[in-house]
Amino acid sequence: MLAMDYRGPKRVRLDRNKPMPEILHPQDAIVRVTRSCICGSDLHLYNGNVPDTRVGETFGHEFIGIVEEIGADVHKLKVGDQVIVPFNIACGECTFCKQELYGNCHEANPQATAVGGIFGYSHIAGGYNGGQAEYVRVPYANVGPTVLPDWMHPDDAVLLTDVVPTGYQAAEMGGIQKGDTVAIFGAGPIGIMAAKCAWLFGAGRVIVFDQEEYRLDFVRKYAQCEAYNFKSIEDPVVFIKKTTESLGADVCIDAVGAEAAGSALQTFTGRKTLMQAGSATALQWAINSAKKGGVVSVVGVYGPTGNLIPIGNALNKGLTIRGNQASVKRLLPRLIDHIQNGTLDPKALITHHIPLEEVSDAYRIFANKLDNCIKPVLIP
Ligand code: NAD
Ligand code: ZN
Questions:
Q1: Which residues form the Alcohol dehydrogenase-like C-terminal domain (predicted)?
Q2: Which CATH fold topology does 163-323 show?
């Protein structure tokens, strides 16, 4: 079959002869992929910043498709069903799944102490093959996959696998109270969705920072919020203080993750990879611009350690810092309702439909923010 194939940092290609996935366990399903996005999280892999990303791996954790085959113990799905597959692989029964922490499932990734299983996300997330391919094996098929409602547009459905729940959970973890000022770092798909969702929780003001003018334009219109280029203001921390009577934002959301560390990290550490060094400018800005007693919600993905975060400032301000991989299954029912009643319109974020055959171009466009790309979806 055709599949995306990782060759090393910034090198991906199309593999025309990847072996077809097989049922390995009675609860597996094989899904024929119909849409598969590239995510900002894939860029951490693509840039070579995630430890134990192996040459020959297929990425892709945001996909929908049609059930092609089911294992003997799969009873919630049948062949031919169209399914939304959450990016978290979750057993549904371990102590974490029982708390609806589906992003932290123990069974799906027993070697790890932090993250659970994720499709196509290196061996730190369980070593599963991803969905940037014609077919993919879906473990625990009674748990994650949800049949697509017949009224739903497939572009909305594919964004329910990650972007919508992650943006929503970013806002939810912020504990936004009515009238709160919410500052969001990053206007990629996740920051944009977080801005949109912040209003659903009662925000009084939403301010987004990025450096890509076209993304700032997009979020301003799409989420009806303020948006600023952090390169053209003196410093987001000073900026936020000035516009909040020196108090800071009630809630700050980091929707950037490791790459923002770039120059800052080199200055501080001269170390090898961002994921090893951890921390980043966006997170520092989030902590330093939060109001005393405020909340910092981190959905940007980092390496296991974070030794450069201004923990002293966080402590002295009495901040609450929350973060996690989104718990997709927990949020799906309410997000499907939001799409049905029109309060969320995720498909507007998809700017590019690209054949799977052109996967290396798709990565180049998304990684380099070319052609006003917000979110690309691969079509096998
Ligand atoms: P993206 O790469 O498309 O967007 C990131 C944006 O951040 C870019 O527009 C970039 O210009 C901007 N940026 C860079 N440095 C910045 C800074 N210092 N301040 C403000 N903006 C800055 O990525 P995305 O798909 O939107 O994902 C964003 C982050 O969310 C990534 O780290 C990704 O791994 C993570 N993520 C987490 C989860 C989760 O479950 N927690 C799920 C999906 C994605
Ligand atoms: Zn993703």
A1: 189-269
A2: Rossmann fold (3.40.50)
Q: Rounded CA gap, 50 and 121, in Å? A: 9
Minimum mean pLDDT range among 74-83, 280-289, 312-321: 280-289
Which amino acid, one-letter code, is at 165?
P
Mean pLDDT of 75-83: 98
The yes-or-no verdict on residue 263 having pLDDT over 50 is: no
Mean of the pLDDT values across residues 119-138?
97
Ligand 2 is an ion; its neighbours by CB within 5 Å are 39, 41, 62, 162
- HEC assignment per residue over 158-202: HHCCCHHHHHHHHHHHCCCCCCCEEEEECCCHHHHHHHHHHHHCC
Is 40's C-beta closer than 6 angstroms to any atom of ligand 1?
A: yes
Place of tokens 């516009």: 243
- Where are the domains positioned within the chain? 3-162+327-379, 163-323
- For residue 96, give every residue at least 6 positions away whose Cβ sits within 8 Å of its Cβ, in sequence order, or none: 102, 104, 105, 106, 116
Task: Find tokens 């059930």 and name the residue.
Answer: 67
Rounded to whole angstroms, how far apart are CA atoms 131 and 72? 22
Residue 304 has a pLDDT of: 62
DSSP state of 340: H
pLDDT of residue 259: 67
pLDDT score for 355? 98
ipTM of the complex: 0.99
pTM recorded for the entire structure: 0.96
CATH class of 3-162+327-379: alpha beta
Closest CA to 284 of 263, 259, 311, 262: 311
Ligand number nearest to the C-alpha of 254: 1
